[in-house]
Amino acid sequence: MMKRANDMSVTRRAALLGAAASGLVLGTGRGVAQTNEGLATPAVRSNISGFRVASWQHHFDNLRNGAILCDIDSRAVQFWSEDENVYKLYPSSVPLTEELTRRGYTEIVRKVDGPSWRPTPSMKERNPEWPDFVGPGPDNPLGTHALYLSWQYYRVHGTGDTRKIGRQSSNGCIGLYNEHIEELFGLAEVGTQVKLF
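Given the sequence above, the corresponding structure tokens read:
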């Protein structure tokens, strides 16, 4: 019986080491996501983004004021500083449906630390039970920080509901973990160019 227990722990250890070896590779500051083909499918679908690292040159003419690329399909947000010394890659939540998704170029027009939230008229129509206003705090759907875009009602913001990240779960906005939006909030500025694609 003792030998069998040891065999099971070695197998578990080998599996964990193998999983770690095939995980996210970080060497140059850019991540490469691994697929889980051939592995057992978990009972509950995880909310992991399939990161697709992009080159800013394929989306922007320059990096004036920095650039934020929101990749709806891979559910990731990338940031480049104007001087290219800072590059960040974050998992994100994306809109629930294509109807709620807006794609194209915009920019940050306002930054708010501790935002308040009001549902849009269409949100209120779909969900009449929602409150008319939520002030800053842990129950706020915009999380701790929000980057307001030039498109009315669209934001890149935080969320306290970590289950949403990596999923189609928003009413049009791009959501990040609160610690990630706090970091991006410090890096981006009013005028930072943004593309959702």
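DSSP finds three helices and twelve strands in the chain. Try to locate this feature in the token string yourself.
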